[in-house]
Design goal:
By secondary structure, the protein is mostly helical. Helix content is 64%, strand content 1%. The protein has 19 helices and 2 strands. Helix 2 (9-29) crosses helix 19 (405-412), helix 10 (187-200) packs parallel to helix 13 and helix 17 (362-373) crosses helix 18. It starts with a helix and ends in an 18-residue tail after the last helix.
Length: 430
């Protein structure tokens, strides 16, 4: 009993995600989850479950031709649980069962969303659930307008709800076989899906901050300003660059490509025919990803902003300043740590799969690995054809990308011990 009490929040989160993945794997492996005459191997069930819980969207199978109505409903629930996060789901269950949330559970929720421990647990949970429900409902209504013109009402409702949940949670799973390519001339569908992706990627911390600004007249935090400014910049820059790189794409599809590369996985443009510049830009945007405490992955917009700001400040010989506030040294160190570790993980996974799958080019493998680690789900079409060993590597990358390497480190790292201190020594750099 004592061991359970001393489990660190990071370890609880990791184990919680593993439990959800295991449950999802078993449910998706059941024959009732498959269409008639279709068999799904255990490794593929594990891959799809991990992809759903980690809100990635990368899959070795065509979901629309593989899963039954029961199976796709299970998938949608896994996406919802994965997007909200294990801790949010756990807190809801505890709240319903006992009627209260203790300090340990509250800390777990805040840690899972990357929130400051000064933020009230009940308020943060309320904001997360309210925003999720409102966005997904609005998205489903808007998608139904277009889907109802091509499908029977019942099917249109199901497709609208499924894709609204998948888009807001930045999962990218679709039931059309070709993602959004058949809707690439429909502005309502593209803008709705893109908006759900973007709003889902902002993070519940930001929404809690905005709620405090409106109801309590609190000043908007630097975190919110950084997230909004960086997100707008990346979307705008990506849209313009994709429009220039892909001459046969219009502005709405360039905008969609820019948004979806930031961890969603939907596409309205065939990713297998992207030119080298398009592949490079997509990988960069995938790697940066969404914002902390959101349904998206990547190294996060705040890490990207902090690292860039600190780098230029170092060149100019001054401390990094953002919105009239100095960025702490701890934040700078964490940003560089996350980016460097992420680069090393991506490089290691890419190298391993290149060794296992010599028939595929390294750029395509890198594309899949970044897509998995950043929980994006975009693919150049090689995931269905890789071996079991490569699938396991991608599964591990999806898990690390969703749970977060910092979470894994804090789960197993020993507490700092006081003892001997060593003489500081300068190391020649450059």
């Amino acid at each position: 009993m004592q061991n359970r009490k001393t489990l660190r929040p990071g370890l609880k989160l990791a184990l919680g995600f593993m439990l959800l993945i295991a449950i999802g794997t078993l449910l998706l492996y059941l024959p009732v989850s498959h269409q008639d005459g279709v068999d799904v191997s255990l490794i593929d069930a594990l891959f799809i479950s991990t992809s759903a819980i980690c809100v990635t969207g990368l899959t070795p199978l065509d979901i629309s031709k593989t899963l039954s109505l029961f199976g796709s409903t299970v998938l949608m629930l896994l996406i919802q649980f994965g997007g909200l996060g294990y801790a949010v789901v756990a807190v809801i269950i505890i709240r319903l069962a006992s009627g209260r949330i203790d300090a340990s559970t509250g800390n777990l929720l805040r840690d899972s969303l990357g929130a400051d421990h000064k933020i009230g647990t009940k308020r943060l949970l309320g904001v997360a659930l309210t925003v999720t429900a409102a966005m997904e409902l609005l998205g489903a209504v808007l998608l139904f307008i277009s889907f109802s013109a091509k499908y029977p009402a019942g099917r249109a409702v199901y497709l609208s709800v499924f894709h609204s949940v998948s888009a807001f949670n930045n999962a990218g799973f679709d039931l059309f076989s070709d993602s959004m390519m058949k809707w690439n001339d429909n502005p309502l569908v593209l803008i709705t899906i893109a908006s759900l992706i973007a709003f889902g990627g902002l993070g519940f911390i930001l929404y809690n901050d905005l709620a405090d600004h409106v109801t309590k007249k609190k000043k908007i935090s630097v975190h919110t300003k950084i997230v909004l400014s960086t997100t707008i910049f990346l979307i705008a820059a990506g849209t313009i660059l994709f429009r220039l790189i892909l001459p046969d794409i219009d502005w709405k599809n360039a905008f969609f490509q820019s948004v979806t590369t930031r961890t969603a996985g939907y596409f309205s443009y065939d990713q297998t025919i992207l030119p080298p510049a398009g592949v490079a830009l997509t990988i960069i945007l995938m790697f940066i990803g969404a914002s902390p405490g959101s349904t998206g992955g990547g190294v996060k917009t705040t890490s990207f902003f902090t690292a860039v700001k600190a780098s230029f400040s170092l060149l100019l010989g001054r401390n990094p300043i953002a919105f009239k506030r100095e960025i702490s040294g701890e934040s700078v160190m964490k940003a560089f740590f996350v980016i460097i570790i992420s680069v090393l993980l991506v490089a290691a996974a890419t190298t391993i799969i290149c060794i296992i799958e010599p028939e595929f080019s390294s750029d395509k493998i890198l594309y899949e690995v970044v897509s998995a680690y950043a929980t994006v789900g975009l693919t150049m079409g090689i995931t269905p054809y890789v071996s079991t060993a490569s699938k396991i590597v991608l599964i591990v990358m999806m898990f690390l990308g969703r749970v977060g390497f910092m979470t894994i480190i804090t789960a197993f790292a020993r507490r700092r011990q006081t003892g001997a201190r060593y003489i500081e020594e300068k190391v020649i750099i450059g």
